[in-house]
Each structure stands twice: as C-alpha cells, then as structure tokens.
Amino acid sequence: MHDIKLIRDNPQAFDAARARRGLEPVAERLLSLDDARKSAISALQRGQERRNAASKEIGVALKEKDQEKAEALKAEVAKIKEDWPQLEAAEREAIRALDEALAELPNTPLESVPDGRDEHDNKEALRWGEPRKFDFTPKEHFELGEGLGLMDFEAATKLSGARFVVNKGKLARLERALAQFMLDLHTDQHGYTEVAPPLLVRDSAMFGTAQLPKFREDQFSVTAGRPASGAAADEAAIDYWLIPTAEVPLTNLASGLILDAAQLPLRLTAGTYCFRAEAGAAGRDTRGMIRQHQFYKVELVSITTPAQSLEEHERMTGCAEKVLRLLELPYRKVVLCTGDMGFASQKTYDLEVWLPGQGKYREISSCSVCGDFQARRMNARYRSPEGLGFVHTLNGSGVAVGRALVAVLENYQEADGSITVPKVLRPYMGGAERITR
Q: Structure pTM?
C-alpha cells in the first residue's frame, strides 16, 4: 500500500510512475479523498474539544448562578452528543474510502525496470547452459510421464476435474526428491530458516501480501465449521483461503511486529502445496503440469531494512539460479518490464528454464522486491538507532517443484522414453540412476 503523505508531497512523480505501468493518473482523486479524511477527523476533534470546553463552561455558569447560560450550554453539549455517531460514522467512511482506494493500486516500479507493455518487452539479463542436442525428437513431459505409466491425468480428472495430476512410483519420489534437495540447499548453504506454515489463512494475511482484494477470483476459499442448515450456520462459519504461495504465511510472520534492525535480513523458506484458481488461464497450458490448480513449490522470503533490499534481491535470485545450475538445466534470467510486473512488485527477475519438448523457455521462478508496499499493509516495522521504519519484503520461487519436474523429464529424457536421474538428486532417489517403465 502506498503512503498518502509521499503522494501528497509529489503527486506528479506518483502519476508518472503509474504511467510507466500504462495506468491512468489517480493522485488528484487520492488527495481529494485524503482531504475528506482530514476534514472528517477535524470535525470529530472539534466536536470533542467543544464538548469538553462547554462542559467546563457549564460549571462556571452554575457557579455564577447564570442559569440561562448554563441551560444553553447543556443544550449545546446534548446536540454534540446527538451528532456524535454521525461524526464518527463520517470519519470511519472517509478513512475506509481512502484505504480502499490505496489498496487497489499496484506498486510503482524502480527506475532500473525497463518500460514496456507485456512479456515481449522483458529484457534478457543472462543465459546459462546449452540446450541439449537430441538425436531424436524430444517429447513433452506429459507424453513421457504417461509413457512411463507414472503420470495419470485421467485419474486426477475423475477425482478433482481439470488441471490436476496423479504422479506415481518413481515419478512421485522424483518430485519429492526435488523439493527435499531445494530445501536442503537453501537451509544448509544459503542461510534460510525452514518453516512449516499453515496452508489455510485468514483475510488479513491475504490482504497483507496483496492477494486481496484485487485478485479474489484467482483464489480458492474454504468455509469451515458451518452446519449444513440451521440457525447456527452463519454464526459457526470460519472463512479461510488456501494459500496461492507460501509467500503469504511466511511474509505475514512479520505482520504487526517491530523487528530489531540488527536481526535483519530475516530469511525464510518453505516447501508447500499452493492453490490457484487460474481464473484468467482459460485455454492456456491445458495439457500437462505447467499450469495447475494445485502444485508444490519451495518459496523464499526475506524481510530486510530498506538499505539491504536491492542487494538481497540479487542474492535471492542467485539462490534460485543455483538450484537450476546444480540440476544442470539450461535457463535464462529476464528483467520484467513495467507492463508485466506483478501487482506488489517494484522489480522482478524471472528465471525461465529450457523445455526441449516445447522448444522454448518457460518460467520456473519469479523473484521480486516489494519495498515497503506489503509492510504498510501488514504494519511490519523495524527499529534502528534512527528510529522506526517499515521493513522491505522480498519473495521468490526457489523453485516451483512441479515445473522443475517437467524440466527434468524433458531435459533428461532418453530415446526409449526412460529418464536419467540428475546426479544431484540420486542420493534422494535411493541411488537410482534411471526411471523406466
């Protein structure tokens, strides 16, 4: 969420930053809402001050035996009390209107972010590894998985519908091996603390990381404790959201806290299932595991001071890159342009892994620095010798396990349909070197 004081100090700069995202100016409207908020707060304060002053004046009038004046003052106090609920309601409404307007606005891009409209304007920053040259036509991951008899989309559809999969046997173990390998790497070598967070969160957590209110349709909601019928149905209901990413619970661990600057950066990692409705993905990646409602992902989150955040962004992205390098998967790093950035991001690096079955690079990790955008929504602060300030938050995939499985299948496939297990994963696979039917 944006700081209305900063917008008021330089409304032109704020609108210019929005224009880089292709968005219309809003500073004038926001300042008008802020004026209304200030006016409502002032009206309430004036009413309180006048009520206190009039109460004292009543005592003076009674002492002076000026009954007429005392009665007039009593009438004035009574009128203020009568109007008080309306003044309070006006203040609440003015604050709500401004907060809601600010909550709908995306973060503004850093100067180093390239301008552009969509993914075609992203800038490649690095390319690592040479795509393997096959002496046969490489297959896509779902052809390989089904050929091995270990990837079953039909069974998943029977259980849950489209965009789900059932992995079996050595393929299920390979997926688990990937997650364990990533978590061990990030905790043992990269200094992250592993966390096992809840997969169900409240509205406040989703608001804090900016999934709500803007992206409500992309989320799965759950209501627990509601009887099928009866008077107690609504009273007993507890509403949750299935997490779309472990970024939500990990980042919200700092919600409402004041952290010691000397303890920052705080680096957290978690391997969790994630759930996304994919509301805007109709017709895209309908086959296979690229875009599913449920998927496993290892997430990285950092909580830093403002001075640390940009360096931490480079470091975090490097941690995700290390996963792909150890798996020996060719990839490229791109800087997302202003038109392709996420809602809460100031700057984002995408890592795109090479998929020979598709003959192109596909996103496998997104690492973003958000500045104090999420921290303001969560009221997450730090204390330093200079005083209190909002922390900066960062998040990234380290990496998406399902897409890593896709990449391993396609890059390590053999002509007979078997899969060579990457060397770094063999200790997690009981020493197995190959997966065959």
A: 0.92
